[in-house]
Write a structure and sequence with these properties.
It comes from Asticcacaulis excentricus (strain ATCC 15261 / DSM 4724 / KCTC 12464 / NCIMB 9791 / VKM B-1370 / CB 48). Its EC number is 3.2.1.55. One of its GO terms (biological process) is L-arabinose metabolic process. By secondary structure, this protein is α/β, with parallel strands linked by helices. Among the domains are: 18-49 and 573-691, Immunoglobulin-like (Sandwich); 75-227, Galactose-binding domain-like (Jelly Rolls, Sandwich). It is 20% helix and 29% strand. It has a nine-stranded mixed sheet. The chain has an eight-stranded parallel beta barrel with strand order 2-13-16-17-18-19-22-23, surrounded by five helices. A five-stranded antiparallel sheet has the order 3-6-11-8-9, with no helix packed on it. Helix 5 packs parallel to helix 7 (369-386).
């Protein structure tokens, strides 16, 4: 994830910033169905199988993104990174899960009774100390908590003088019965005391108070409150939905985040992990969702982890130690630490990203290419010495990516030339060959913008829907064109062993039907290049969900990925047609490939693939127009039954989305189709299964 300057919209800027019916037959969907588009599927012309990793995701700690979506902790700043003040700052505006410090602690009782101990804190830089009074309760509280009507469990790390009487109270309403108070059996030394509450109503304005009376003082080191149905600390609801979507590979924990990230702060007892300031995303991270938690989450949702190590402020030894902690046996130094932390078995992580976008000056620890290739080689050698079986992904930085905003802009030189000092991928191929298995590329094409090759700036363009939806696929194709040039310059690429991981990509960041159409066309472009595109990571994987702090549903884009994941084929076949995609309106270069992406079935985009057993052929069709279309489909080399099953994703309008607390607008419905031209609904993605006769 990048901070390009100045030409393109970065992920930071972008982030800040349905129902189909059951039976599809030869009857027209709408009276104004267009003239049939002819297409022939050539089942005998196969491409390499689709790697399931093309249905992958990317996830990093951006503020509270992970903490508020997948993790079940109810409290914010639970280890007191921020000092406690009577009037906390106003809650920032933003999407759920991306807020910054949405809740803060406040004193209960006079402000003068509370101080922050910076000499002997429990963890981090400070811990609150409360001076008691026999006349009134004093302590700390956090309000604005989102809770459901269910049981909650927690703990408080505390020390108190012997005459102190300490209680914890969860309040979920204004009435005297809308609360529960439990006694906290604190000792004079630091002690973890369990908490349990039975909340009787759902609210977003609950309050937790930890107060005491008596003489002396009490200290609080850490507090935690989670729903009792949490799964190893994760939310049961979002975990189940991620498992349902079936993400095949998840790139974690970053992203830009890792360039200033110390992984050693994220292992061991969560209550003793220090909260730290993340200078990349300007947020105090509690470090609760660390190495073990993220890898366990991957196990629970059946996703292969692609683990990223920092080459920002870290050195090769840190990379080697991470490999040993994660993959080493329990009799190695770092494997023993993992075992002591409750995980005796190695995680056996195969895929390892060394660095992230290190070609960009927004990355902490960025250095020039001629120095970075040395650093990469040191990391790769040190990590493979620990585990020779790991698969290494290196930051690519192809010229299209470097030109259109992911690289470092140079005034007067907007176009990055192949083989130049700014061609990061070429530098990796030249100086780090043999020390990576795949090169990573990232793309965040901005909406309704075009890159000016003369000035290096973006200008506004207005595009019809089908061309708006083509932009992500076009960015895949610019990378493909780069790859062809790299193969000419580096003939060793032609053996096909080195792959491309498109491990960060997104478009619009709005999880609605319109975005689904664009992402469907993007998947089709991945499928056309399975000879070397081996993984894709949608940004962010949590975009497949819509959620608040207690509820969640699968989003529109989540439904789209789920449909392809469950029903599309495995072995792509050739798709031909008599309706070619229009020629580009702009000259090639930057974000414009020499030809536009798509199949020769304009305005439809068609992709087809055989199932692994070759018993069925699945045809996927994206109709990014507001008019019904007819497709006259012929199949060569595969004798199919007449009619069969189909699946359709659509919604009432382009802005349709799935939101918590509302009826699902974008859904996948199953049906059947009959012989004859296929009738493709407006603004839809449809899959048709042709079973071998």
């Amino acid at each position: 994830m990048s901070h390009p300057t100045p030409p393109s919209v970065s992920r930071r800027q972008a982030l800040a910033a349905s129902v189909a019916t059951g039976l599809l037959s030869a009857a027209p969907v709408l009276a104004q169905t267009a003239k049939p588009i002819a297409s022939t599927l050539k089942a005998g012309q196969e491409r390499p199988p689709i790697n399931p990793f093309l249905y992958g995701g990317f996830l990093e700690h951006i503020g509270d993104l992970i903490n508020h979506s997948l993790w079940s902790e109810v409290l914010d700043d639970r280890k007191f990174y921020h000092p406690i003040t009577p009037t906390p700052p106003a809650k920032p505006e933003g999407r759920p899960g991306r807020n910054r410090d949405s809740n803060r602690w406040v004193p209960v009782g006079p402000e003068s009774a509370l101080s922050m101990d910076r000499k002997t804190p429990w963890v981090g830089a400070q811990s609150p100390v409360v001076q008691l009074s026999a006349a009134e309760p004093r302590g700390i509280a956090q309000s604005g908590l989102a809770v459901a009507a269910k049981d909650y469990v927690g703990r408080v790390v505390m020390a108190a003088d012997s005459e102190a009487e300490i209680t914890a109270t969860l309040i979920w309403g204004s009435g005297p019965a809308d609360r529960q108070t439990v006694r906290v059996a604190a000792g004079t030394d630091w002690r973890k005391v369990p908490l349990r509450f039975s909340c009787k109503a759902a609210t977003t304005e609950a309050r937790l108070e930890i107060t005491g009376t008596g003489t002396g003082a009490f200290r609080v080191g850490a507090v935690s409150l989670m729903p009792a149905d949490n799964v190893k600390g994760f939310r049961a609801d979002t975990l189940a939905l991620m498992r349902e979507i079936d993400c095949k590979i998840l790139r974690i924990p970053g992203g830009n985040f890792i360039s200033a990230y110390d992984w050693k702060d994220t292992i061991g007892d969560p209550d003793t992990r220090p909260p730290v300031w993340d200078p990349v995303w300007s947020f105090a991270q509690p470090n609760d969702v660390g190495v073990d938690e993220l890898l366990q989450m991957c196990q629970m949702i059946n996703a292969e982890p692609s683990w990223s190590v920092s080459t920002g402020f870290d050195g090769p030894r840190s990379g080697a130690e991470q490999v040993e902690y994660i993959n080493g046996s329990a009799d190695t130094p770092w494997g023993a630490k993992r075992a002591a932390n409750g995980h005796p078995e190695p995680y056996r992580v195969k895929y390892w990203n060394i660095g992230n976008e290190m070609y960009g000056n927004w990355q902490m620890g960025h250095i020039p290419l001629k120095q970075y290739v040395i650093k990469h080689n040191q990391f790769a050698d040190a990590m493979r010495k620990v585990d020779p079986s790991i698969y290494v992904i290196a930051p690519g930085g192809f010229v299209d990516e470097m030109t259109t905003g992911q690289g470092i802009f140079v005034a007067g030189q907007p176009n990055v030339e192949f083989g130049s000092d700014r061609d990061w991928a070429n530098g990796m191929m030249t100086h780090a060959w043999g020390r990576f298995d795949a090169l990573a590329t990232h793309a965040y094409p901005p909406e309704n913008k075009k890159f000016d090759m003369a000035t290096g700036k973006l200008f506004d363009v207005q595009r019809p829907l089908v061309e708006w939806a083509r932009q992500p696929a076009n960015r895949v194709l610019t990378m493909v064109e780069c790859w062809e040039e790299y193969k000419r310059r580096h003939p060793a690429l032609n053996d096909g062993k080195v792959k491309v991981f498109f491990d960060e990509y997104a478009y619009s960041f709005r999880q609605n039907l319109k975005t689904c159409l664009a992402l469907g066309m993007c998947l089709h472009e991945f499928f056309r290049h399975t000879d070397f595109i081996d993984m894709a990571g949608y940004t962010m994987a949590t975009g497949w969900l819509d959620f608040d702090r207690t509820r969640s549903v699968i989003s529109a884009t989540g439904r789209m990925y789920q449909m392809y994941n469950q029903h599309f084929g495995t072995i792509p076949v050739e798709v031909t047609g008599a309706s070619p995609v229009p020629k580009p309106d702009f000259p090639a270069g930057g974000d414009q490939p020499r030809v536009n992406a798509g199949s020769a079935t304009y305005p439809l985009d068609v992709s087809a693939a055989l199932t692994a057993d070759r018993k069925a052929l699945i045809v996927a069709i994206v109709n990014a127009t507001e008019q019904a279309q007819a497709l006259d489909l012929k199949i060569d080399g595969f004798k199919a039954r007449k009619g069969g099953r189909c699946w359709k994703l659509t919604g009432p309008d382009l802005e349709a989305q799935n939101a918590v607390g509302k009826p699902e607008q974008v859904a996948v419905t199953a049906g059947r189709f009959a012989a004859g031209p296929l009738r493709i609904a407006p603004n839809s993605i449809e899959l048709y299964e042709f079973v071998r006769a």
